[in-house]
Amino acid sequence: MFAVIYRWRLRPGMEQQFTDGWHRVTAAIHTRCGSYGSRLHRADDGTWVAYARWPDEEARDRCSAPDPQGVAMMVEAIAERLPETRMRIVDDMLTEPGGAPGAAPGTGAD
């Protein structure tokens, strides 16, 4: 399996637009390109970080902007795009709390 870490600095006040665009793009990539999904985080240093998993690097590379409007929403909100990190998964000990897929712990869905 394959994973990518993406990082951005956002324009002040555009966090919700970015999040909405990221959600649209991630859903489209999952549906149309076969990704295993992604998680979006806000880091302590103010950057935004997404971790995405794919069956392999080729699947990720074949996938191109399946939601142009969502991409445009993200691009407008991004002040700086930091280099992505591509990784091959060597071992996987990540487990999810019980509940609905995509539900963050502590939201009542776990």
TrEMBL record:
InterPro entries: ABM_dom, Dimeric_a/b-barrel. Residues 1-59 form the ABM domain. It comes from the Bacteria. Transmembrane segments: none annotated. This is ABM domain-containing protein. It comes from Streptomyces spororaveus.
